[in-house]
Design goal:
The protein is mainly alpha-helical. The protein has 2 domains: 1-96, RNA polymerase sigma factor, region 2, helix turn helix motif (Rna Polymerase Sigma Factor, Chain: A, Orthogonal Bundle); 112-198, Arc Repressor Mutant, subunit A, CATH 1.10.10. The protein is built from 10 helices and no strands. It starts with 6 loop residues before the first helix and ends with a helix.
Length: 198
């Protein structure tokens, strides 16, 4: 479970982790692992890739804690390292959204008869979001996920990506428009959207 920390508390935990405090290290991992896994899962579309990247990101971060600059948020540093690991992994493999994912999505979406209506609606919403995210380029997807899933501010995203805030806002606006267009142009997606939001 993700544990939110105040900035001052986080700095103290990092200081103790640098000194070799095992509990502090555990606290840091617990505070960020769920959010990082959720982000990497949406980026990669593959649970095993997300797990590997999250694990490797924490290994890198913990080995290099002495290089952390406390002027910045720890999550920004962690997510930046994870993103680099993801890019490197994707360069060695085929694209993240492979035919298995497409086939699973295209299997008709028929829920087992035992599923409740609420569970089926959640499944439809998940598939709808995945399909809409699929139309985005990698940078747009990352910005959308950081803003909407991780609740990062425009300033934090700009800092993380090394781009002006206005550029981040433009990417976010274009990404939302592309997602909306993708949903509207797909009759099945539209039907699912209606089901989810009515």
């Amino acid at each position: 479970m993700t544990v939110m920390m105040q900035r001052s508390t986080e700095r103290e935990v990092i200081r103790r982790a640098k000194a070799g405090d095992g509990r502090a290290v555990e606290t840091l991992i617990r505070a960020h692992q769920d959010a990082l896994f959720a982000f990497m899962l949406r980026m990669s579309g593959r649970p095993h890739v997300a797990e590997d990247i999250v694990q490797e990101a924490f290994v890198r971060v913990l080995k290099n804690l002495d290089r952390f600059d406390p002027r910045f948020r720890f999550s920004t540093w962690l997510f930046t390292i994870a993103k680099r690991l993801y890019v490197n992994a994707m360069q060695k493999q085929r694209p993240a959204y492979d035919t298995d994912t497409v086939n699973a999505r295209g299997s008709g979406g028929v829920a087992p008869s035992g599923l409740s209506a609420a569970a089926e609606t959640q499944t439809n919403l998940h598939e709808l979001l995945e399909a809409a995210l699929d139309v985005l380029n990698e940078q747009q997807r990352e910005i959308v996920l950081l803003f909407h899933q991780q609740s990062w501010s425009i300033i934090e995203i700009a800092e993380h990506l090394g781009m002006p805030e206005g550029t981040v806002k433009s990417h976010l606006h274009r990404a939302r428009r592309r997602m909306r267009e993708a949903i509207v142009s797909d009759r099945i997606a539209c039907a699912r959207a209606e089901e989810v939001w009515t």
